[in-house]
Structures are given as structure tokens and as C-alpha cells.
Design goal:
Elements lengths: L6 E3 L7 E3 L5 H10 L5 E3 L5 E3 L9 H5 L5 E4 L7 E3 L4
Antiparallel strand pairs: 1-6, 2-5, 3-4
The structure holds iron/sulfur cluster (SF4).
The site of iron/sulfur cluster (SF4) has 13 residues, from helix 2.
């Protein structure tokens, strides 16, 4: 799949995924590996960078962890999110 062909409508006021303040480091490493869009990044100091703007809404990160790691996970509100474009 070519992600650049997708169309995103971003809700800048309400992120649909919010990492928790002090997530487990081991699970963070798994998040970095599981996200097909590469939205989770571990910084050299061990902190997490996350950008929900390119989310594919696959749910992999939600399945991997609970609210101790992701304080919020929900689908974007109606009219927002990803539209997949193939071909
Ligand atoms: S739902 Fe999928 S694409 Fe979106 S942040 Fe989680 S793993 Fe990445």
C-alpha cells in the first residue's frame, strides 16, 4: 500500500489517540515496531514522540496495550480520519 495516496482529514482539536504520561518502556518499544505508519518514535532520552496525523486506524496499538500506555484510543469523529485510496 502506498500511504502517500491516502487522504487524511485531521481533527486538530481532538486527538483520537493520546499516549499516557508515564508509559511502560518495554511496551513503547513494541508500539514503535507494531505501528504500520511509524507514528511512534523513541527519542534518545527514552521519551516518546507520537503524531496521530498519519494514523491508519488499524487498531494495532490499541490491541497491544491498555490505558496505562494509551490514555485515549478511539476512532476519529465522523468526517475525520483516513480515506484509503488504492491504485
Ligand atoms: S491505530 Fe494503527 S496506524 Fe494508528 S497509531 Fe495505532 S498502530 Fe499506528
Amino acid at each position: 500500500m502506498k500511504l502517500s495516496k491516502n487522504h487524511y482529514v485531521i481533527d486538530e482539536n481532538q486527538p483520537h489517540i493520546i499516549p499516557a504520561d508515564h508509559p511502560d518502556r518495554q511496551i513503547l518499544r513494541q508500539l514503535v515496531n507494531v505501528c504500520p505508519a511509524g507514528l511512534y518514535q523513541l527519542n534518545p532520552d527514552g521519551s516518546l514522540s507520537f503524531d496521530y496525523h498519519g494514523c491508519l486506524e488499524c487498531g494495532s496499538c490499541r490491541l497491544l496495550c491498555d490505558e496505562k500506555t494509551l490514555a485515549r484510543w478511539r476512532y476519529p469523529a465522523a468526517g475525520y480520519g483516513v480515506t484509503f485510496r488504492f491504485g
